[in-house]
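Teaching assistant's notes for section 4

Start the section by putting this record on the projector. Ask students to predict, before seeing the second block, whether Dienelactone hydrolase will look compact or extended. Collect guesses on the board.
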Amino acid sequence: MAEILLLHHALGLTKGIHAFADELRGTGHTVHVPDLFDGHLFTTIEDGMAYVNEIGFEEITERGIRVASEFPHEIVYAGFSLGVVAAQKLAQTREGSRGALLFYSCVPTSMFGSPWPAELPVQIHGMDGDPYFVDEGDIEAARELVTTADHAELFLYPGDQHLFADSSLPSYDADATTLLLQRVLEFLRHLDA
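Reveal the predicted structure now:
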């Protein structure tokens, strides 16, 4: 079973993030879901990002990196949207990483000063019509990462929602989330093989 550090999106640590973590826990995995926003929750991405900009984007990312120091290096890093930046940096640069799960976002590997470790498994999930994922360069970064890693998968789901796997939000897509969870659980099973 895997130990997973799961970093939330720009709306904060929502009930939907907890529910997602509980789905993984229900199959025997250990999942840590730190609150990088000190209890603040938002109803729109714009409001959440305004808070991030007030605190500082780098500071929010560093909070995710600092919290990782409380856990073993042999962990899976997972992030939803905003949380992907810290999760991807940790997976890419922290020795001993077991894998990465990147939801709704991906940044160029060059952002962290080193290539993606070729043997490090990664899954990236996004909707094919999500303007944040498709129009802001994330899909290109994801495709590039997939070409450089030995065990990398990019999954695109039909639709235009960004935070589609958060069951507490109007953007929730139950069918896409069911498929995403199946793929994530299969990814985690392979890590134990």
